[in-house]
Amino acid sequence: MGDQQTFYEAMREHGITRRSFLKFCSLTAAGLGMGPEFAGKIAHALETKPRTPVIWLHGLECTCCSESFIRSGHPLAADVILSMISLDYDDTLMAAAGYQAEEILEQTVQKYDGNFILACEGNPPLNEDGMYCIQGGKPYIEKLRYMASHCKAIIAWGSCASWGCVQAARPNPTRATPIHKVIHDKPIVKVPGCPPIAEVMTGVITYMVAFGELPELDRQGRPKMFYSQRLHDKCYRRPHFDAGQFVERFDDEGARKGYCLYKVGCKGPTTHNACSTVEWNGGLSWPVKSGHGCLGCAEDNFWDRGSFYSAVTNLGVTGGVEATADDIGEVLAGAAAIGVAAHAAASVVSHMKDGSKGDSSHD
Amino acid sequence: MNSTAAAPHDPASREPVYVFEVPVRVWHWLHTFSFLALAVSGYLIANPLPSIGGEASDHFLMGNIRLVHFIAAYVFAIGFAVRIYWALVGNRYARELFILPIWRGDWWCGLLHEIRFYLFLSKDTPVSLGHNPLAQVAMFLFNVLGTLFMIGTGFALYGQALGIGSWADRLFGWIIPLIGSEALVRNWHIMGMWLMLVFVIIHIYMAVRADIMGRTSSVSTIIGGWRLFRNGRR
Ligand code: HEM
Ligand code: SF4
Ligand code: SF4
């Protein structure tokens, strides 16, 4: 491979026409929510910048992020992106296998030390010295640490890499741990979701390789352009929420009329993702549009919050017992009321006893 | 800063004392009613009323419930800020809510006595000019910290609705990653409501009880400001 090959050259080599390339640039600019003038900027960057290699690692995961990624809505985007980042290493997608594959990692480290992007799907389990995830005879955590120490920046794909996800659910027997809790010295972009939306993934990675910098992140490390709003803020059923029109059961009149799904557990009000704007499968639909509430899959701990079908969820403090704040609160308030009533009764009794002895008390 | 120990007024003299100044009394009732509005509207946000029919454009029920919540939230928060200011400039009793004099031995004795009294272990009715030590502890934990917690978590959630970068997000948004996630913040916001409600139940009982059975006025004090003393236990 030519060392100083640009993205554009790499794409042409993969048979992408200039026309497709320019279309892709406009598409990406639009996807990132930038003005039309940015299409030119992206094109220029891709034409002049040397290609940034992307190493894609897989830890404990279900591979849904990869599945989502390769189904990027616009076939063009998928093609272009795959050739663009050409995924120098991705154990799931690449042709190479075995020693040959592992060699690529070493080559990348030598050639592009400090210059490649490490895309992590899944997370490392830490218990038993990482023995729950072995790759090429070594614990995954070692591979992750090694590659991370040489990369430029990390993308944490999906809720596994960002938060832990279902393999980290209580009691988390393997101690599956999100990337930011094991790698502390590299910039990390979290792209949560189970899986993240394909257009969000391609948008983030294009931004990073084209501009050579991280997108603007929120407090929890997620790109603001896709994660700054809750689904609820842009949901097309929101007018029904504000009106007080809810689906009470999945087979009721409200469900047929497309009312808000809050009462049957929609987590849209607390979930930061782009589902209600970008939607899924090339803008075809998204859960709420198909009549089911959001599970909150892009949020930390969504897997341990109890029912997907109730609005008030688990507190997460009661260990094995599933209890919501309302359950605990009602018990506490009830206990306080009973306690007060009992104390009042006892006071009256004690007072009457004193009274019958004649009011003798002074101090 | 003065401590409440060296009260210039001897309870035994049984002259009425002016305890709660006007701002404290006004705040008490603003705080009470905004809390009630917040608790009712908040409960209805977590557990909405039965669905209504018709056109969405004809109704704004949930929107109005949220509006009530947010207006009451402003009253609650700004009132509390003014109350903190009054603790600085008001009389000695205005500070009792915020400062537990844990460095004073007689305060601990008072606390112990108070607990024994309410467990019916002691017949001696305690007398306090301001708050009694037990009430003070409960008020500090549930009301002062509770109020701060509700304001913090509430405005953090509010910042998410206003949008990233809004004033509420910049001032309070850090609370969300601190607690974990927005869903968890909402859960704790609800838990905070229940804890404060438990306090309210006990607080009202104690106040009414003190009025009926104690030797000092209490309900009338927070209305009129004067602490009255009665002879003996009745
Ligand atoms: C003691 C005072 C308060 C009580 C008892 C209270 C109670 C509640 C309850 C029970 C909920 C429902 C939570 C859920 O469904 O997940 C809620 C939601 C909320 N509260 Fe409060 N709250 C209080 C103070 C505040 C304050 C000071 C603010 C500041 C603005 C605030 C802002 C909010 C917001 C933004 C929500 C989310 C509602 C939505 O966006 O639909 N709360 N509150
Ligand atoms: S369906 Fe969900 S996201 Fe949409 S308005 Fe209702 S609660 Fe919000
Ligand atoms: S709607 Fe909710 S659960 Fe579904 S993909 Fe989007 S964030 Fe995840």
How does this model look, in words?
The complex is a heterodimer of chains A (363) and B (234). Chain A has helices at 7-13, 18-31, 37-48, 64-70, 75-85, 98-111, 127-130, 140-150, 158-162, 198-211, 224-227, 238-243, 253-257, 275-278, 325-356; strands at 54-58, 89-90, 117-121, 134-135, 138-139, 153-157, 188-191. Chain A is of the alpha/beta class and 363 residues long. Chain B is elongated and about 65 Å long. The model of chain B is unreliable at 1-9 (pLDDT under 50). The interface between A and B is large, with 63 and 52 residues. Protoporphyrin IX containing FE binds at residues 35, 38-39, 42-43, 45-46, 66, 69-70, 73, 76-77, 150-151, 154-155, 157-158, 161, 186, 189-190, 193, 196 of chain B.
Quick summary of this structure?
With 363 residues, chain A is α/β, with parallel strands linked by helices. Chain A has 15 helices and seven strands.
Features:
heterodimer, A: 363 residues, alpha/beta, Rossmann fold, Cytochrome-c3 Hydrogenase, Chain A, domain 2, 3 domains, 5-stranded parallel beta sheet, two-stranded antiparallel sheet, 15 helices, 7 strands, B: 234 residues, mainly alpha, Fumarate Reductase Cytochrome B subunit, two-stranded antiparallel ribbon, 9 helices, elongated, disordered N terminus, binds protoporphyrin IX containing FE, binds iron/sulfur cluster
Termini gap of chain B: 35 Å
What count of helical segments of chain A does DSSP give? 15
Stated plainly, the CATH topology of the largest domain in chain A is called: Rossmann fold
Strands of chain B, total number:
2
Major beta-sheet overview of chain A? 5 strands, parallel
CATH class of the domain at 92-227 in chain B: Mainly Alpha
Over the alpha carbons, how many angstroms does the gyration radius of chain A reach? 27 Å
Q: Give the helix proportion of chain B (percent range).
A: 55-70%
The number of strands of chain A is: 7
Report the CATH superfamily of the largest domain in chain A: NADH:ubiquinone oxidoreductase-like, 20kDa subunit
CATH level 3 topology of the domain at 92-227 in chain B: Fumarate Reductase Cytochrome B subunit
Q: Helix/strand/pairing class of chain B, anyone? A: mainly alpha
The profile of the biggest β sheet of chain B is: 2 strands, antiparallel
Tell me the quaternary state.
Answer: heterodimer
User: Topology as H/E string of chain A?
Assistant: HHHEHHEHEHEEHEHEHHHHHH
Give the CATH architecture of the domain at 92-227 in chain B.
Answer: Up-down Bundle
Give the count of helical stretches of chain B.
9
Class from helix and strand fractions of chain A = alpha/beta
CATH class of the largest domain in chain A: Alpha Beta
Largest interface, C-beta within 8 A: A-B, 63 and 52 residues
C-alpha geometry of chain B:
elongated
